[in-house]
Write a structure and sequence with these properties.
Elements: E1 3-11, H1 25-34, E2 39-42, H2 51-61, E3 64-72, E4 78-83, H3 86-97, H4 106-109, E5 113-115, E6 121-124, H5 137-146, E7 150-153, H6 163-166, E8 178-181, H7 187-193, E9 202-204, E10 219-223, H8 228-236, E11 242-244
Parallel strand pairs: 1-2, 2-3, 7-8, 8-9
Antiparallel strand pairs: 1-10, 3-4, 4-7, 5-6, 10-11
The structure holds zinc ion (2 copies).
One zinc ion is lined by residues 10, 12, 70, 154, 207.
Amino acid sequence: MLTQYRADLHLHTCLSPCAEEEMSPLAIVKRAKKKGLDVIGICDHNSTRNVAAVCQAGRREGLVVIGGIEVCSREEVHILCLFDGEQSLQEMQLLIDQNLHSQNNPRFFGQQCLCDEYDAVLGCETKLLIGATGLSVEEIVANTHRLDGLAIASHVDRGSFSIFSQLGFVPEGLQIDALEISSRHSIAEVRRHFPKTRGYPLVRFSDAHRLEEIGVTSSIFTAHAPCVMELHKVLLGEDGREVIN
Ligand SMILES: [Zn+2]
Ligand SMILES: [Zn+2]
């Protein structure tokens, strides 16, 4: 049976240096539930290492959590990569570890906290997570698909770190699954100002870096289950599944 799921699949935790410390696993889950979300996605910059803690907090509190990562390509394009399985997340993490090399300076960039499901801080990531990886947009998308994930171009209506701001277009043949738009523009405005979005499914997520931003914008997915495999079919519009923005 098709069910409507309200989803905000682009949330950062306190592992992202630009996110607030309050973005801890349990606090995120509680806030998302309060906002009426059915499913959230965790996409820290270039790391999956807080995903497991948020998933565990979600399981305990009764909220579906999808694991992901927001990878910064070597062209400085942000791509959301979402996965169903822990194995896929681990393989993606390995790929990022091999392609990210700068060290963090917390005084300039902020702390990058690794947490457990009860919000205790277990340590800090020492690599700088907001830098560009050595991976091209094509490599990120291809590897995401190899690991059965979904690749969504982040905040395409923003003037920085978006596929349009960095490349000017979606490269021919790039198998991107959807384009994310921010809360700043309506769908009609985006289609008008960014005509190159035509032909791609659009989704709206909050890109929350603070608790109060969670669920500020979201998409509703009509699907059989709140998972990446179903979401893939939603974006293709299979058998009555759809995105409602
Ligand atoms: Zn981003
Ligand atoms: Zn983001």
